[in-house]
Q: What sequence folds into this?
């Protein structure tokens, strides 16, 4: 490229986002003529269909294959037991075509060499290649692999990573993965070696031998193409991958492999700074500039909410201030302005409700008639004037008075945006002063526009007259705010349900699979009877004379159902909104023999039957609980 001087450079690559950090995009002035990812290419029938099988790697003397097994005991990686096990599975799952033409990816060159030798001892013709092999040697091995002749042909080539990119072998009909997944990019590169179409090849078989590896959570990230790093989305993909993957391709995991991936998801922190920095760099390379909020929404990259939720960051400004050398506003804001950006990012920028965002937008844009025009804004969004409870709740949120405890108030003690909205909306002195700064005004306006856009995209299709959207996810704090309660409630106080007298609302929170580590008295036997019927149990120590009876069975009470699969992961706190439910049948007491007490049993009828994929996810797929180590 340094020698030729054409009028137009046209480049093609299957791996634009590289683990080594090299910026391919800038070679072409960040002009992307066309981009197509795995899922879209499968939809367009541009690739050979694949059948992926996640297979439990062998236990040897009761020991799992882990990240450090090869370092501790190399002999187990290349043991006869493992070789026989891999061959057995390779024969069972097969290939498309007259004979196997396979690639085997290993953890190390030594492993590749020994496994190749042991396959040869069992009647296969294989070789191994490493970075030490010349280009001619590699080409000769490829020719033998794809040869139509049975003389001097190869069944498998064993390697580590030299075939990750820059090689084209359309005839490959089986790919075997015998190493931990180090990154989604490398995973797709290796899977992709078999996705080229070829004559007499209807599909490619991918065999992934899954040990008890730390990075197993990267498998669903790679296969799904979902880089948002949302744990529940990854779990759902494992539960129903074949229903999601386009075309005639399929994804299958055996039960132990599923369990290992679920545990990896549970244990992992998916919004670590290093992961955020990597995804940020990929997006910046693609754009040739610092990404905006909207860029994160437009491109298939990490959800910017991961930046907000990371406690060491809290806002996009803080992230850029720490890690972007080209950021112009590193020292432009004072402590109050930075805290306000964190407050908005963490509390309201998700767009789960638009009210606070619209009010702040009004405050920074106009000076007069704010109350009247703001109420008009809300009426335009909701079709009705806001209630007294709603306006009071908004006021409390933006005065930092919605949180129940002093330590929580202290965290955002400077984030006071309004001081009155009874007759007119009046900004506080510190907020009025803050927005006179042009840079803060710019950054705040961008953040508010982002939140409003998210609301329109994800949360504007409201369920009945609530602020919730069916099957979107909410924390308990979100629920308290969106139900217009006077105060946020401590999650421990809420527990499985909580009744607010002012609004006559009663959210019910159900964790469908209980953690083995909790007390027996908390293991409520909640269960679906059908997609429209659910049985739930009261808190311990309740009976027919308990206060619950007066509001659980009152016609004035609105009961809303929120569910999560399990709570066994770092930071799990979100629940799917399942709609309104209604008590049916007689009041009933049941005895729990394992605990030795009696509790109330509630039988609910759901207003809307649970969507099939979610119902199957909750009822049929066993996500392991009780292992967070």
A:
């Amino acid at each position: 490229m340094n020698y030729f001087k054409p009028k137009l450079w046209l480049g093609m690559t299957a791996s634009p986002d590289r683990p080594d950090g090299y910026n391919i995009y800038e070679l072409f002035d960040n002009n992307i003529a066309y981009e197509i990812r795995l899922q879209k290419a499968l939809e367009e029938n541009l690739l050979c269909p694949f059948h992926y099988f996640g297979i439990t790697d062998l236990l040897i003397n009761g020991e799992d294959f882990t990240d450090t097994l090869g370092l501790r005991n190399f002999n187990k990686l290349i043991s006869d037991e493992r070789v026989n096990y891999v061959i057995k599975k390779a024969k069972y799952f097969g290939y498309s075509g007259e004979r196997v033409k396979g690639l085997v990816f290993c953890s190390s060159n030594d492993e590749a060499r020994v496994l190749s030798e042991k396959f040869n001892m069992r009647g296969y013709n294989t070789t191994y290649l490493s970075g030490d092999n010349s280009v001619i040697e590699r080409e000769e091995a490829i020719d033998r692999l794809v040869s139509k002749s049975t003389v001097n042909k190869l069944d498998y080539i064993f390697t580590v990573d030299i075939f990750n990119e820059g090689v084209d072998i359309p005839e490959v009909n089986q790919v075997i993965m015998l190493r931990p997944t180090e990154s989604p990019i490398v995973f797709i590169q290796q899977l992709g070696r078999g996705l080229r179409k070829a004559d007499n090849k209807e599909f490619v078989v991918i065999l992934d031998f899954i040990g008890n590896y730390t990075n197993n959570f990267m498998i669903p990230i790679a296969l799904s193409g979902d880089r948002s790093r949302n744990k529940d989305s990854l779990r759902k993909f494992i539960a129903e991958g074949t229903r999601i993957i386009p075309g005639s391709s399929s994804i299958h995991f055996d039960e132990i492999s599923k369990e290992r991936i679920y545990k990896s998801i549970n244990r992992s922190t998916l919004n670590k700074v290093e992961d955020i920095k990597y995804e940020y760099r990929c997006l910046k390379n693609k754009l040739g500039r610092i990404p905006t909020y909207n860029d994160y929404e437009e491109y298939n990259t990490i959800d910017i909410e991961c930046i907000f939720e990371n406690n060491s960051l809290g806002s996009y400004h803080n992230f850029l201030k720490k890690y972007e050398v080209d950021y112009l506003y590193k020292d432009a804001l004072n402590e109050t302005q930075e805290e306000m950006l964190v407050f908005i990012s963490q509390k309201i920028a998700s767009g789960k409700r638009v009210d606070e965002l619209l009010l702040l937008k009004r405050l920074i844009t106009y000076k007069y008639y704010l109350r009247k025009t703001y109420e008009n804004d809300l009426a335009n969004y909701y079709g009705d004037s806001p209630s007294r409870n709603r306006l009071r709740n908004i006021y409390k949120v933006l005065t930092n008075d919605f949180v129940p405890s002093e330590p929580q108030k202290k965290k955002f003690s400077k984030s006071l945006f309004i001081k009155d909205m009874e007759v007119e909306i009046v900004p506080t002195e510190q907020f009025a002063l803050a927005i006179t700064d042009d840079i803060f005004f710019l950054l705040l306006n961008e953040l508010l526009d982002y939140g409003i856009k998210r609301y329109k995209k994800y949360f504007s299709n409201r369920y009945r007259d609530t602020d919730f959207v069916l099957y979107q996810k909410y924390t308990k704090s979100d629920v308290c705010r969106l139900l217009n309660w006077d105060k946020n409630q401590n999650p421990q106080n809420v527990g499985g349900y909580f009744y607010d007298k002012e609004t006559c609302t009663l959210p019910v929170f159900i964790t469908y699979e209980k953690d083995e580590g909790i007390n027996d008295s908390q293991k409520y036997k909640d269960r679906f009877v059908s997609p429209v019927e659910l049985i739930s149990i009261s808190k311990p120590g309740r009976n027919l004379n308990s206060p619950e009876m007066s509001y659980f069975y009152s016609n004035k009470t609105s009961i809303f159902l929120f569910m999560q699969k399990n709570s066994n992961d770092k930071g799990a706190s979100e629940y799917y909104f399942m709609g309104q439910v209604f008590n049916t049948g007689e009041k009933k007491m049941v005895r729990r023999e394992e605990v030795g007490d009696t509790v109330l049993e509630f039988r609910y009828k759901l207003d809307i039957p649970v969507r099939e994929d979610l119902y199957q996810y909750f009822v049929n797929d066993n996500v392991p609980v009780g292992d967070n180590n």
Q: What stands out?
A: The chain has 25 helices and 17 strands. The mean pLDDT is 87. The two ends are 50 Å apart (CA to CA).
